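Protocol step 4 of 5: obtain the predicted structure for the target chain.
Materials: sequence only (see below). No template structures provided, no constraints applied. The aim of this step is simply to have a reference model before the mutagenesis design in step 5. Sequence pasted as it appears in the construct record:
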Amino acid sequence: MTSIEEAMEVTVRPRTRRLVRQAVVSCAALALLAGCGDGSADEAGPLSARQAAAVLPDAKAAPGWEVAVEPVAYPQSKARELGVARCYEGPAECSKPRVTGVSAMAGGRDKAQLDFVLMAYEDAKAAQASYEPVWKAWGGRSVEPRELDLGTIGDESDAVAGVSTSLRAGAKAVLVQVRVGSVIMVTMGEAGSGVELPNTVEQFATVFAERAGQAQEGKAPSATLNDVA
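Step 4 output (structure tokens):
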């Protein structure tokens, strides 16, 4: 699979932002992460590296899939040092996340390959302010992008489909970015011709978002593909 770093940069079509009702969580749950506010998910503070790693899709989250890269997450300075933080949006914007993590899956019935990136911010306000520049940077690396409507995922979401930069004949790629509270997540999938890739990536992005919401509510992430199939 061609890595996300090798994707070519092109102009992104106008983006569509979808806002949905914020999940309500208890003051007690928020106290585990960021103290109490008005009881909304947007009050959740930054995830720790350990919490971020637990959010990333793994073998338990994706039954029948093979783990290509085990979930890992680090504080931003360490993530940049190790090359985990992919700073397409530029040095200033890249320094804003508190934690960055990655994982990857392969296989499944669709024989697709998927990469996951999680960026955890100080709070929901910081993540919301970073959403558009991050999408411009990541979405702008899609080749021949075509905007997709995958419905409402998380608090904000965008998606494009395009041509894969790999040498696989007829291979396609789909990129989805989602924000849930203080977390921005990128899901990128690649598969050969004849595969319903958008549906596969949508399911993974949905599970990814649900796991981020659970973590920000002070719960252990437990959502799996079986919950959204």
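Step 4 remarks: The chain is about 25% helix and 25% strand. The chain has a mean pLDDT of 81.
Proceed to step 5.
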